Amino acid sequence: MIDEKCTILSHELIKGDYRMLVLSAPEMAKDTAPGQFVHIRVPGLEDTALRRPFSVFDAGDGKVCVLYKAVGRGTRALTQAKAGDIVSVMGPLGHGFPLKCEGDALLVGGGYGVAPLHFLAKRLLATANPPAIKVFIGGRTKEDLLAVEDFAKLGVETMVATNDGSAGATGLVTDPLDDELIRLRTAGRGFELFACGPDPMLKAVAMRATGTGSKGWISMDRHMICGVGACYACIQKTVRGNSRCCIEGPVFAAADLVWS
Ligand SMILES: Cc1cc2nc3c(=O)[nH]c(=O)nc-3n(C[C@H](O)[C@H](O)[C@H](O)COP(=O)(O)OP(=O)(O)OC[C@H]3O[C@@H](n4cnc5c(N)ncnc54)[C@H](O)[C@@H]3O)c2cc1C
Ligand code: FES
What we know:
This protein is of the alpha/beta class. It folds into 2 domains: 2-93, Translation factors (Elongation Factor Tu (Ef-tu), domain 3, Beta Barrel); 104-256, 3-Layer(aba) Sandwich (Rossmann fold), CATH 3.40.50.80. It is 22% helix and 36% strand. The chain has 6 helices and 16 strands. The protein has helices at 26-31, 73-78, 114-125, 148-153, 174-187, 199-211; strands at residues 2-15, 18-24, 37-41, 51-55, 58-60, 63-69, 86-93, 104-110, 133-139, 157-162, 169-170, 191-196, 215-219, 235-238, 241-244, 251-253. The protein has a 7-stranded antiparallel sheet with strand order 4-3-7-1-2-6-5. The protein has a 7-stranded mixed sheet with strand order 11-10-9-8-12-13-16, sandwiched between helices. α6 (199-211) links the parallel β12 and β13. Bound molecules: flavin-adenine dinucleotide and FE2/S2 (inorganic) cluster (FES). Flavin-adenine dinucleotide is lined by residues 37, 52-55, 67-69, 71-75, 112, 115, 221-224, 250.
């Protein structure tokens, strides 16, 4: 883990409250694995928790990219940062997704949860024996569907669902996922599940992994302060007791998670 002073190369509005931040981060870009996160000191933010955690959407060629949603004080302040500004970024932090997959890789993301899954898909495709990959993207409306074109650029098949039916299937992202699970089971194919997004979606995906005896890898999004294991703000209950999302996670095996 390093604390790198990174120049903002670009900072673009994607849609709605979502932006893509591209950082020049030569050191971090070399070492970051999918599912790990960076802890960004938000310029101009005067509070005790100066940093905010973000998954890595992509890393390589000296750059680290973050796809984020402006939701509160820190992320709104971050929207003011401009290309050329320098930000302090700690990372890469935490444990990411495994890059070995037995059977098909089914990636399930909601909202900005697609960010680490995009990086995962890219890295899985670069392995010696890439698995067949399908991505299931969910959102409340079409405005919350992110990275669909980025997955298409990777050549990955993408299924989309929105709660209001404004794009893709109407309903939950687990509906098309369930159709795929039935299809795979009928064909006798194994799979692993990889998920990041809102808690109810993560729980539903974890249940499908454990319920089918398959491996599941769940990236837990917990409020963080220090990001390095010192403050215990980011506790997740697991079968081994309390775990810190920033150290033992954010990616956990589905079978290890205890849901309240
Ligand atoms: C490992 C990890 C990876 C993340 N990756 C991304 C990412 O790729 N893109 C992205 O947009 N966001 C990501 N987040 C969430 C992001 O860190 C929070 O949205 C951000 O810290 C909120 O800061 P704020 O000051 O703007 O909001 P605050 O003013 O602190 O809070 C505003 C609202 O956001 C909620 N909030 C605060 N922290 C979180 C959190 N960790 N998760 C969900 N809601 C939160 C609060 O409950 C409140 O409703 C990630 C969080 C973690 C722990
Ligand atoms: S954020 Fe401080 S221990 Fe995880």
